[in-house]
Amino acid sequence: MAALALGLLLILAALGIYVAAILGVLAIFLGETFSFIPLLPALGDITWSASTEFILVAVPLFILMGEILLRTGIASDMFRALDRWVNWIPGGLMHTNVASSALFAATSGSSVATAATIGTVSIPNIEKHKYSPPLFLGSLAAGGTLGILIPPSINMIIYAVLTDTSVNDLYLAAIIPGFLLAVMFSLAIFLACVVKPSLSGTRESSSWDERIKALKHLLPPILLFVVVVGSIYAGLATPTEAASLGVVASVLFGMYRKRINRTVLLMAFEGTMRTTAMVTLIVVIAFFLNFVLQSIGVTAFVSNFMEGLNINPTWAMIAIIAFYLVLGMFMETLSLMIATTPIVVPVIIALGFDQVWFGVLFMILIEAALITPPIGVNLFVVQAVRGKGPFRDVVLGSLPFLIMMIVMMLFLLAFPQMALWLPSVFN
Amino acid sequence: MAEPTDGQREGILERLSRYFAWVSGGAILFCAVLVTLDVFARNVFNDNLFESFEITIYLYAVTVAFSFSFALTTKTHIRIDVIYARFPKIGRAILDLIALGMLTMLSVILAFYAWSLTIESFGLPGPGNWGAVSVSDLAVPLVLPQSFWALGLSWFAFVCVIYMLRGLYSFGRGDLAALTALIGLEQREGEAELQDTLDIVKESEPPASGGTS
After folding, report:
1. B13-40 mean pLDDT
2. Helices in A296-312 by DSSP H: which ranges?
């Protein structure tokens, strides 16, 4: 029965019905069918309290910050500056791709914008420096996903709100795995280039003078990262407040660069509200669905069922990871995350896992969904920026990075402390 | 260049939705400034000066409610095309109508219960004649933010209904192209954002140098 309902939902989703509408109709249907008291009248109350959740305001703020940064040209300057520092390593520019994606993603939060921005600056170098296209393109597609894991991540805020987890804990938990994953991406490039030197293009090296000069372009993103993430860690600001600081700081950077004007602001406002409206509608409806699922006892049933099964938690977790890897191949990631959280997280807790720890693992699963064919947004983005050549190149080139993501998840499974150590130190 | 970039002729609904998005974005920026000032005030003077917390949550609720329609007119609300894309034109047109029909239903229900909550707040006992107030120094009568919020949701429902009627009209006339232009799922997810980003990067790039050297 449950499987039938789930199947029906997936088919409706694949048929192009608005995801928010599917979740809403499902919630109303379940509430009307299985509840003794009418649940629909609570809709107003629940959507109002979800819409006035202070932590959710961080979503438009971070999007606005990213929009402003994008329109002020910080990303391309940063890319060139980073290149001076890492171009001597085997794999040269590909490390720059990963490093600047990590840094830019950490400040902008959008994987599409990251992959597109860094890709546009970087891709012309494939031919210029004779890189092997697949690995190079893969480093762009995979690098762009790092923003989901490295704080301040918007996806993590949504996960936190839906599961009643502390965003601070999540941000603390994600930072070591986040940067480690970036290092592992670089390691994959390094190893590939050592084994097969033809993958790497012509390298150059920069003088220390050039490197020092380049530092000033690295300053804005690093400063922003320190302001936003540092103020949260230092206990000076909540995530929403930190996002506000980030918006103000990025506007100041933009003004310093004389790139803030009426048009830039209006376009940034449009982009911000478009994305925010899209995200918030689904989140608000998911809140109601969550309420219905709890009211009619589905959540408790699932937890009890899992506890009754008496299965090995590790194997269950591996099954969940496999489930998401497969679903992630086909489903849009935001809907995937929001639609499955209300059911999966109680299961995780029933299995004895920590929801902060799972939040980190979940983000890596979502990153993987962005680079697995046939539906992987970052693959499309990188291919679109490249504008020629077979799509297969991007898919193949992303494979080593996908393997690194899986390795990272196994690490997390074996050593949960990688994620949980920092939050335990701070609390 | 603050003109529409979506390549469609912009009717009154689309234009109004865009204006709402501008005002909403401006309000979010205003919130950011207010919250920033409060963070400084709290860490320096140990005091909250601007009640930014409460103003921000109400502005968020209202601005987002007014922006739902913009996400509809710019086709940003998420739809997945795995099976959809395999249908012939006529099948996709029917799916578009079903999808919009379901969204319209949801939007009307949302607006209805938003108003019902607002009326309920108004009916609750409070210090003044304005019903329930928020538990804070500001003591905002909840009717105030809630009615703007309900108004925003009503605007979304209104745009949905009009789009539904327009869609049905185009379908009835057999004008599938118009239907697709209005509510079709033509682009892949992320494509609008990608196009935006590319435009920006192209603009901000100095024309002479293409990449690193």
Report:
1. 96
2. 298-309
Please return the burial class of B10, using the count of CB atoms within 10 Å of its CB with bins 0-12, 13-18 and 19+.
middle
ipTM of the complex: 0.88
Are the beta carbons of A61 and B24 separated by less than 8 Å?
Answer: no
Return the C-alpha torsion angle A116, A121, A123, A128, nearest 10. 180
* H or E segment and range at residue A360: helix A355-370
Nearest CB to B60: which of A15, A51, A385?
A: A51
**Closest to B39 (Cβ–Cβ): which among A57, A237, A280?**
A237
| The two three-digit tokens of residue A399, written as one number | 């494979």
CB neighbour list of residue B101: distance below 8 Å, 6 or more residues apart: B164
For residue B141, the SS3 value is strand
Q: Inspect the interface and report whether the beta carbons of B114 and A47 lie closer than 8 Å.
A: yes
For residue range A167-216, list pLDDT tens digits in order: 999 999 999 999 999 999 999 999 998 888 888 777 777 788 888 888 88
The span from the CA of B193 to the CA of B81, in Å, is 17
- Please state, in angstroms and rounded to a whole number, the distance separating the CA atoms of residues A270 and A272: 5
Top residue of B201, B202, B205, B209 to mutate, by most chain A CBs within 10 Å, is B201
Residues of B in contact with A285 (CB under 8 A): 106
Q: Is B88 exposed, middle or buried (0-12, 13-18, 19+ CB in 10 A)?
A: exposed
Grade residue A37 by pLDDT with cuts at 50, 70 and 90.
confident
Portion 341-380 of A in contact with B at CB < 8 A: 375, 377, 380
Alpha-helix runs per DSSP H in A123-238: 125-128, 133-144, 154-163, 167-195, 208-225, 231-233
**Rounded distance between C-alpha atoms, residue B163 and residue B177, angstroms:** 15
CA distance A266 to B25: 8
| Residue in B closest to A40 by C-alpha | B113
Q: Which of helix, strand or coil describes residue A371?
A: coil
- Helix axis angle, A313-330 to A391-414, nearest 10°: 160
Nearest chain A residue to B70 by CA distance is A274
Burial class of residue B7 (count of CB atoms within 10 Å of its CB; 0-12, 13-18, 19+): exposed
Q: How far is B15 from chain A (nearest CA, A)?
A: 12
* Per-residue DSSP letter, B188: P
In angstroms, rounded to a whole number, what is the distance separating the alpha carbons of residues B1 and A54?
Answer: 34
